Write the structure tokens for this entry.
Amino acid sequence: MNADTPDDMCEFVIFGGTGDLARRMLYPSLYFLDKEGFLPPEFSILGSARQALAADAFQALVREALETFVPDAHLDEAAWDRFRARLTYCALDAQKPEDYASLAEALACGPDADKVFFLATKPGLYGDICGQLSAAGLIGPRARVVLEKPIGVDLASSRQINAAVGRAFNERQIFRIDHYLGKETVQNLIALRFANALFEPLWNARGIDHVQITVSETVGVEGRWSYYNESGALRDMVQNHILQLLCLVAMEPPASLDPDAMRDEKVKVLRSLAPITTATARDCVVRGQYGEGVSGGASAAGYAEEAGGEESATETFVALRAGIENWRWAGVPFYLRTGKRMPERRTEIIIQFKDVPHSIFSGLAARDVAANKLVIRLQPQEDISLLLMNKKPGISGNGMRLQPLALNLSLTDAFQKQRPRRRIAYERLFLDIINNDPTQFVRRDEVEAAWAWIDGISAAWADADDAPEPYAAGSWGPAASVRLTERSGHTWHA
């Protein structure tokens, strides 16, 4: 067992315990933590959902999930036997007060024990669940609750949910989870920025020309049409994942790794975002919706066709030019882009540095000179590279030739022996939850500051009353997204 893990950690309760998220991410993550000795001996996992299941049927459901989502090489029978012994189940309708008495009986620990309630449910149920847990006397001083995004659909609903949860749990007990913050490369961005003296003198408007953040998906909405049609790309991806990445890039150095020191600096960034209004939206925002096309070498239906031909004004693509109004970033555009049915699955951050102030090269070499670029990739592979200019080997009758060469900072290559597999982001975050460390979780004022900025964009779209621009499935979005960057003399990173 990890020396930092509390010996008396007792119960991990998953509401929505038979759902897709639980099967695809939560149980595999907990299995890996158990297999590698990070779970305390007395740690138990209780799944809860409306479906009536005997204990052995629930264990079979979890086993099937592991066989589906864990590579065969990592399934170990001894590890499974130990993990299975931790699994219990309680049928519960989250909106029925009488069912919480059954939950109290199913819990092995009393109200004062270390407990985690993970709400893998619709956000509209968060307040009800927390209120019922409180009424049933199940929340003690060492309990904590984990909330999945999105928390609300706008600032008003977010405040309502946060207030309802806050009546049962204090802020220190609330862990708002964004799994992107558990990714190895995202966490390495903190080390890259604040453990190296090399970057800080250049990490500002004097050294950086612009920043790009792209989160692209090849899939459509699949079976999530009803949810997605209410949220769209702006609320589903920009409000949480992309703005969290922006904060880590743009934040000031915190005084320490203390949870509030880190989160204070992220809130400052969100509050410094230049508002996008009706007057500026046309120049700063592009939204699109995919139509039929070719994706992954096969024909792909359009967004409306996936819902049986139902017309919708929901965007499946959004590109933004954001500005941060502070001394460090004044005048530096941050280009944010996300979409479904893109040509490739990619999540990356591009830090484009400025050109050299004066080039000593002439002739062919002058045309070769390119500004340095830091490329941080989160998926499909996690790696970091810094593009530097180098002389091409050999001799030439036309003088020196130059070419960009990537300085590879890949964690996968550098630590292959220590990293035999790519971890699920939830593993690291679960360990933080168990250790009661909220550093990598989102504070209430962060959520609300992000929603305040997003609501301004939504209001501008409502005022304009424009439909999303169509783009073919398998493309990089509407042509207007290219013009968005070209107006400032930039292009999207290929």
Notes: The mean pLDDT is 90. The first helix runs from residue 20 to 35.
